[in-house]
Fold this protein.
Amino acid sequence: MSVIEKQSVAEIKARNKELIAEVLKVYPEKTAKRRAKHLNVHENGKSDCGVKSNIKSIPGVMTIRGCAYAGSKGVVWGPIKDMIHISHGPVGCGQYSWAARRNYYIGTTGIDTFVTMQFTSDFQEKDIVFGGDKKLAKIMDEIQELFPLNNGITVQSECPIGLIGDDIEAVSKVKSKEYDGKTIVPVRCEGFRGVSQSLGHHIANDAIRDWVFDKLPADAAPRFEPSDYDVAIIGDYNIGGDAWSSRILLEEMGLRVIAQWSGDGSLAELEATPKAKLNVLHCYRSMNYISRHMEEKYNIPWCEYNFFGPSKIAESLRKIASYFDDKIKEGAERVIAKYQPLMDAVIAKYRPRLEGKTVMLFVGGLRPRHVIGAYEDLGMEVVGTGYEFGHNDDYQRTAQHYVKDGTLIYDDVTGYEFEKFVEKVQPDLVGSGIKEKYVFQKMGVPFRQMHSWDYSGPYHGYDGFAIFARDMDMAINSPVWKMAKAPWKQAPKPLLQAAE
Amino acid sequence: MTQSAEHVLDHFELFRGPEYQQMLANKKKMFENPRDPAEVERIREWAKTPEYREKNFAREALTVNPAKACQPLGAVFVAVGFEKTLPFVHGSQGCVAYYRSHLSRHFKEPSSCVSSSMTEDAAVFGGLNNMIDGLANAYNMYKPKMIAVSTTCMAEVIGDDLNAFIKTSKEKGSVPAEYDVPFAHTPAFVGSHVTGYDNAMKGILEHFWDGKAGTAPKLERVPNEKINFIGGFDGYTVGNIREVKHIFEEMGIEYTILGDNSNVFDTPTDGEFRMYDGGTTLEEAANAVHAKATISMQHYCTEKTLPLIKNHGQEVVSFHHPVGVTGTDAFVMALSRITGKEIPESIALERGRLVDAIADSSAHIHGKKFAIYGDPDLCLGLAAFLLELGAEPTHVLATNGNKDWAEKVQAVFDSSPFGKNCHVYPGKDLWHMRSLLFTEPVDFLIGNTYGKYLERDTGTPLIRIGFPIFDRHHKHRYPVWGYQGGLNVLVTILDKIFDEIDRNTNVPAKSDYSFDIIR
């Protein structure tokens, strides 16, 4: 399907610009003006991608974005396994996000671990009218009675909480006192706050600062003997086991991982993190806030890394090692050398099947840029990318370190735009989410979900890259795509019925 | 290192290797501040006891693992059942991302829906501008024939008035004045997704029949011989609606399916994305007022819709998700009575085949105990089917079931000697069910995908029937209604029973004398 490789960069740029102009025609004038700022063609040497970001989605356009609650409960807090996270408000938010994100963990669910459970206050009309604080207090009592081994509670606010004037902070304080200083964290992540999941990440980060870090007794003895090599993994949600296949590399190079934020994480790990010597940050978007805070307050440096694909992994291991002594630097080299034969074998097997294939991405967090290197390791080319809820600092990182000249950039893409772009660019693979998956597969375009790893994974680390390569191969080279067209029918172009 | 290019290990096997196992054990011991394993074991055992059950059932405020979703999900489900209709949910945008994901994960199909993307300023000033812009954008971009509006709880809490907002939007030119924009208020803090289905269906019929929010004359009913059919919120809509059409056609009945989403949730992969497909045409929706009668397959999905229809002069008949012989008998006999059409031999044959299958297999089901949970109507239909198989629906639970529902379930129990020791649990959740399964064990559990946690914890084998089914594929393509649907349900149950018998008799030289080749 690749048409792009035969074109020069200038031709691609012209084609992409034309494509942007074309999709904008569908909008009413005001909307076209607003959307135009989110679409661009990347120019080499620019410091960012030339798009506006982190501003309100336009009503009615079918944005792919979620909400602040999704950012807090779904992303940051939900994976903390030994705490109970109450979806506070009506039943839906907790129901739709119940166990949907594949945050792997080890623990006895329902007894000392609670990640794949849905705790909700299931608001009824009377709770809206009279307020839900009393109910919330009672819920906490019932949790204490029925789930006595929980190590803490968070209150994940849904839309109504902030609108009806409930005081979840007061309830949390009272109950914390009643239960001997138990960690109870109110989170103001109502879905209408901000413009996407992103503010929910920030609010959740701040809640850890205010209700976990700031409650720590200054003289508390550490639960373990500190070492010079203690690091915390920040911003890995252990989707399909990502944090595990990352942790193993850090440990093999001689570091000690004292905390995982937040995939397979625990309250004790959150509390121990201010003792780290370095915070290593994978998802910058969702956890840069707490990293900056720890830098300011506890003098812990932080270092962004990228564990997708061998090129970026080696670069990242060396970067992380540069914060430590020669022992760790040697450890990094040893790890890189150890896995080189595996990487060579994976690339030898899959690259010939994937060489020159083109990819369009639209994902959240770090992935619109971080996975580009992994595709390039397989000889593939990312020809379009965009962030669901990125900010300008994401687009700066993308422009300066990842994308090629002429790449199509689309921020907070709408359903219509994405379909049009894919229809015209005709990539060999689209990587996006569950809402997009079936749209493109119907069009006959191979697809991988790049939020959930399409129920596979891990994709992080060297072990993960082998799986990543296998999965991209199985998506692109599946025999099914040859059957989409009935042999007796003329080859149809992917169509957008709705838009004609 | 266990990973290899030759045989790539993913999460199923990778982490079972010794390096990872050692790493995870160290993590737990050193950094997680874990509970004493003996204490974990003690609580795990305690949570199985009658004492725990009593505390669990005394819960008044906390809900754990509910089996229900919220209203707008049902509204979106209804909207896509009408020709080229775009669901538009007024309120926060995150909700719409959730509905779309939820439906896509069940049907493995695209799910198109837009939001008015209200944020903090709209919370203060109201969402009128979001409605005005949203309708204009959706209309221009996605060229729907109709936009069906519902609400998230945010818009409901601040009190946005859909009728007035839509009117104003039309005045501002967002969509043409005569363009169809039916609406329904669907507060998430009232009822569940089945309530949302009801409100949205009522909203659409009201729109077409009662003067399009004051912009057109009300329709004058001119009775004809047609029958309207409403399926209700149904995870099997693809298979079920086709089965129902087959029955209507066999009987020679002219019909209108109201909210026919059987095609939009079952589009082919042939190179074209169909954002809209099939559906009740708007003309059919309007003309449905003239029908002789309306049949609802799920009473609790149409509690407000049916009175509206009745008030227009039609006979209304409702069922509780009939499954099996007796339930389907009642359905086809009602069709026959209303239309005066005889039940053809072809349908009698289908019936005979289902009875035949039950006769062949009932020895394996007879006397087996089942726990069932799901939407209220589904529970009623399944409980009745189990009773006619000679099985006992020991625990029947619906988080969104009320007192009225519980009485109906009790009446079903009372109708059969096999219902004697059966109990109904309205308004309870799956954590209650967990206690029931520990303290009063049953042979099988029937429920949706979330039942797999109960299967893991209690060892009760799960038979997946319900919504959502995320972890098994394509079940929604097969009907559970009609005699042919009853056969599918029977086979689904039997497959699990036989798998369990084999699983429990396969130890060589211990139990495998019963590992029979013929059953």
About this structure: Residues 326-354 of chain A form the longest helix (29 residues). The two ends of chain A are 23 Å apart (CA to CA). Chain A has a mean pLDDT of 96.
